[in-house]
Amino acid sequence: MSIALDPLDRKILAELQKDASQSLDDIARTVGASKTPVWNRIRKMREAGLIRGQTTLVDAEMLGLEACFFVLIRTSEHDQSWQDAFLKTLLERPEVMEAHRLAGDIDYILKVRVTNAKAYDTFYQALISEVKIFNVTALLSMEEIKSTTILPV
């Protein structure tokens, strides 16, 4: 479900996505509006659920999480109890940065951040000990070419 946004709302969202730590004064100045209307629009977008939160982006490699794997999962299980166990397992694993259920030959894709291949194997062994999986293919990212959290507004 999308909500109606006017050009000022879009400018505000663009600024918040670039750097949410900006002061309200700076955002208002950049979008060409006064502080109170900008604050009211931000508040309304939060209340509507469009702005879901605020976070800090951290450099994974500087934390020693140098390996990024994309894990393709095929399963022969599709019942609710398997899905519940799989979801629980994913939510408990901090290495899983993203998880998507897919249409097509692959059922799920995970983005997993770990220190190295040995750490990935530890993750893999834990995953398959928790849930039955038909096939797992791990693809190591050799280079991150683009990564952004900024949505086109």
Structure description:
It contains five helices and four strands, in the order H-H-H-E-H-E-E-H-E. It has 153 residues and is α+β, with helices and mostly antiparallel strands. It has a four-stranded antiparallel β-sheet with strand order 2-3-1-4. Helix 1 packs across helix 2.
Throw out a few tags for this protein.
single chain, 153 residues, alpha+beta, Arc Repressor Mutant, subunit A, Alpha-Beta Plaits, 2 domains, four-stranded antiparallel sheet, 5 helices, 4 strands, 39% helix, sequence-specific DNA binding
What characteristic shape results from the CA principal axes?
elongated
The helix content, as a percent range, equals: 25-40%
Beta-strand content bin: 15-25%
Roughly how many Å apart are the termini? 15 Å
Record the strand order, biggest sheet: 2-3-1-4
CATH architecture heading of the largest domain? 2-Layer Sandwich
User: Main sheet?
Assistant: 4 strands, antiparallel
Global structural class: alpha+beta
Using only C-alpha atoms, the radius of gyration works out to 20 Å
Strands, count: 4
- As for the CATH topology of the largest domain, it is Alpha-Beta Plaits
Provide the number of structural domains: 2
| N-to-C SSE string, H for helix and E for strand | HHHEHEEHE
What is the tally of helical segments? 5
Average predicted confidence as pLDDT: 96
CATH superfamily of the largest domain: Lrp/AsnC effector binding domain/regulation of amino acid metabolism (RAM) domain
Low-confidence stretches: none
InterPro entries: ArsR-like_HTH (IPR011991), AsnC-type_HTH_dom (IPR000485), Dimeric_a/b-barrel (IPR011008), Tscrpt_reg_AsnC-like (IPR019888), Tscrpt_reg_AsnC/Lrp_C (IPR019887), WH-like_DNA-bd_sf (IPR036388), WH_DNA-bd_sf (IPR036390)
Domain HTH asnC-type: 5-66
GO biological process, one term: response to amino acid
Keywords: DNA-binding, Transcription, Transcription regulation
